[in-house]
């Protein structure tokens, strides 16, 4: 029983997003310009709070340097090649692992999602593997593979492949029974069914999986760099903090945040472009 | 679920179990006579795990790690749900803080590990802080979207009957957002486990992360694998526990037909 109750509910990607245009017009709310002003002032408020916290001396300046100190290091950092090298190293490791996960996870998920038997038999296994904190494999990988870029890529791949796989599987399963029965009764050939029915209905879910994995890939890459001597943003944070340059460490953290945030924005944009054909208030 | 006959109960169980069992069997057979230094026989690993748990200090490590996760996640839940309810209720606040919260969520907390641990020390406190810092964002964002997603008609009804705010919070807003909140906690749990491991590998005298680091760097391979397996069991056990809590608290929600449920759109890593 314990097994049949561990149902997985992967991120349902779509309903809310699809309904967004309708929501926006209904909500009305403040105009675009006012909203932007509000958001800017919220950012400003947080920066002021940060500055006040740092100035008050409640926390030592090595734990939390002020915003002016942190942002002051950016012009200098932008000029150094070490900064861009670190960003490149992190992105390189993250991207390689992510692409490998997409290439393996999406087809595997779509195929196992199409056949109920395959989905059922892989369920428990994937459930156990998915909840495994991949970063805990790092000591093992360091033993087997050593402190090489391959280790970073492998750990990123393992962390990304499960969200991608699960979302693809979930998407392939989301074909409604009515459509499935219609395909059966018209004897739609398998390849046509896959290309014209399963693939389009799985795309939103697959995109969600890829978006999750993209964010995870950067996170894991930085995690690996923090714990090893592999070059990248994570390693630079360690070096800066150990060298007493807390402001520089924070500058690298903000860089990491910006990368994560841009990935989110980019993938949301790509998702919207790819799924434009969908009617906005589609309900199943 | 309720109309199952006993025969129909073990059949899906069998269908789900054969592959994991096969995998474990293959693993056991493939590594049985293994002389490879890095891949010791799986039975050796399990024996080591058992021995370390009984006679070694592994139980102490396990308890240390578990306590940090529980404390960090507890703090994150209280802060995240509390702030999320406020932000979700006040529309202006929700819109103003949107990009800020998205940015905070996108910032990888693992990058904070060296900064926090190098300045605040290797004790338990900084680790709890890191776990709370990392896991608060999914809970907060999910609470906000859960509160925001409550049907406007429900809100208006509560308003027009002039239901006092405390009652409204406890009986309308919180139950309405609870499914989303749980989805957030589930994401937060996996983040918490990762941060537990990273913070302990980075600098800690005790804990599971420290155990696998120490045994790994002293080339005690079976111990390293055993610790890794234990972390896996811990991760899975905690997620099953959370699921059980969810079913206990949200039984009313899961008994609804799937179509009546609200989609959980924000439970992302």
Automatic annotation (TrEMBL), chain B:
Q: What are the GO BP annotations of this UniProt entry? A: transmembrane transport
Tell me the name of the encoding gene.
Answer: ssuC
Give the range the annotation lists for the signal sequence.
Answer: none
Name the protein family.
Belongs to the binding-protein-dependent transport system permease family.
Q: Does the keyword Nucleus apply?
A: no
Gene3D superfamilies found in the cross-reference section: MetI-like
Tell me what this protein is called.
Nitrate ABC transporter permease
One cellular component term (GO) for this entry is:
plasma membrane
Q: Where are the transmembrane segments?
A: 69-88, 100-122, 128-151, 225-253
Keywords from the named record: Cell membrane, Membrane, Transmembrane, Transmembrane helix, Transport
Q: Where is the ABC transmembrane type-1 domain?
A: 62-242
């Amino acid at each position: 029983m314990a097994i049949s109750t561990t149902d997985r509910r992967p991120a349902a990607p779509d309903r809310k997003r699809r309904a967004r245009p309708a929501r926006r017009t209904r909500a009305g709310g403040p105009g675009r310009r006012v909203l932007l002003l509000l958001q800017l002032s919220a950012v400003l408020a947080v920066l002021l709070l940060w500055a006040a916290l740092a100035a008050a001396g409640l926390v030592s300046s090595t734990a939390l340097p002020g915003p002016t100190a942190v942002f002051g290091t950016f012009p200098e950092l932008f000029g150094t090649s070490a900064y861009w090298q670190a960003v490149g190293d992190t992105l390189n490791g993250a991207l390689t692992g992510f692409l490998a996960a997409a290439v393996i996870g999406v087809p595997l998920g779509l195929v196992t999602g199409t056949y109920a038997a395959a989905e059922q038999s892989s369920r428990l296994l994937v459930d156990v593997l998915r909840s495994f904190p991949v970063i805990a494999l790092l000591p093992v990988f360091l033993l087997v593979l050593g402190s090489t870029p391959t280790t970073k890529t492998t750990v990123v791949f393992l962390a990304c492949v499960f969200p991608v796989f699960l979302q693809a599987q979930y998407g392939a399963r989301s074909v409604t029974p009515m459509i499935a029965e219609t395909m059966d009764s018209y004897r739609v050939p398998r390849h046509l069914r896959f290309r014209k029915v399963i693939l389009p209905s799985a795309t939103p879910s697959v995109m969600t999986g890829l978006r999750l994995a993209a964010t995870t890939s950067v996170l894991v890459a930085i995690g690996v760099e923090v714990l090893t001597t592999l070059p990248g943003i994570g390693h630079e944070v360690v070096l800066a903090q150990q060298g007493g340059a807390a402001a520089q460490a924070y500058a690298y953290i903000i860089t990491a945040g910006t990368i994560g945030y841009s990935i989110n924005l980019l993938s949301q944009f790509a998702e919207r472009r790819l799924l434009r054909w969908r009617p906005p208030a589609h309900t199943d | 679920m309720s109309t199952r006959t006993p025969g129909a109960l073990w059949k899906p169980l069998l269908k789900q179990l054969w592959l994991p069992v096969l995998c474990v069997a293959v693993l056991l057979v493939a590594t049985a006579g293994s002389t490879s230094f890095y891949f010791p026989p799986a039975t050796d690993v399990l024996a080591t795990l058992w021995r370390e748990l009984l006679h070694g200090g592994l139980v102490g490590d396990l308890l240390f790690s578990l306590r940090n996760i529980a404390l960090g996640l507890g703090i994150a839940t209280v802060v995240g749900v509390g702030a999320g309810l406020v932000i979700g209720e006040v529309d202006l606040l929700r819109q103003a803080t949107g990009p800020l919260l998205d940015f905070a969520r996108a910032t990888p907390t693992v990058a904070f590990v060296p900064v926090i641990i190098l300045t605040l020390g290797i004790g338990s406190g900084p680790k709890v802080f890191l776990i709370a810092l990392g896991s608060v964002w999914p809970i907060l964002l999910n609470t906000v979207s859960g509160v925001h997603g409550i049907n406007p008609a429900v809100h208006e009804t509560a308003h027009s009957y002039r239901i006092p705010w405390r009652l409204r919070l406890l009986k309308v807003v919180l139950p309405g957002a609870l499914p989303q909140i749980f989805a957030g906690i589930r994401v937060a749990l996996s983040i918490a486990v990762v941060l537990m491991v990273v913070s302990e590998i980075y600098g800690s005298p005790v804990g599971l992360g420290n155990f696998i680091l120490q045994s790994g760097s002293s080339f005690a391979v079976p111990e390293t694998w055993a610790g890794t397996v234990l972390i896996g069991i811990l991760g899975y056990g905690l997620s099953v526990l959370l699921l059980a809590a969810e079913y206990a608290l949200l039984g009313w929600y899961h008994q609804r037909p799937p179509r009546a449920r609200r989609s959980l759109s924000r439970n992302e890593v």
